[in-house]
Specification:
It is a single chain. The chain is α+β, with helices and mostly antiparallel strands and 110 residues long. It folds into two domains: 51 residues; 51 residues, no CATH class. The chain contains one helix and two strands, in the order H-E-E. It starts with a helix and ends in a 7-residue tail after the last strand. The mean pLDDT is 77.
Length: 110
């Protein structure tokens, strides 16, 4: 009976030791894994970074506005007096094309 109880305690001790070793290995590897992911993100953001600069931008502009207004003017007479209604027709168009530089020089970096 004594042999069975002694082996049971030894297997629990071995299981605990293996679990601790695995947890320590995972905790050690996690910092390397985090650094790898952060490096990948840094590379991705550096590739995107220089595509747009809000301080210096040369933009091609094509802008158009068209407006039409119709108003009518009509005079009618009835027994009580005269009534007037007005009619106007107006059309307008505004077009802007070309290049525009937005912003100026980049502010100094600290």
């Amino acid at each position: 009976m004594r042999k069975i109880l002694g082996k049971k305690g030894q297997s629990v001790l071995e299981f605990t030791a293996i679990t601790v070793i695995i947890l320590v290995a995972i905790m050690t590897m996690s910092s390397y894994f985090k650094r790898g992911v952060q490096g990948r993100w840094r590379t991705a953001t550096d590739d995107i970074g220089d595509q747009y600069d809000p301080f210096i931008a040369v933009t091609n502009i094509r802008y158009g506005v068209t407006g039409t207004t119709n108003t009518s003017l009509m005079t009618t007479e009835d027994g009580a007096g005269f009534w007037t209604t007005r009619e106007d027709r107006t059309s307008s168009q505004q077009i802007k094309r070309g290049k525009t530089q937005v912003g100026g020089a980049r502010p100094p970096q600290p």
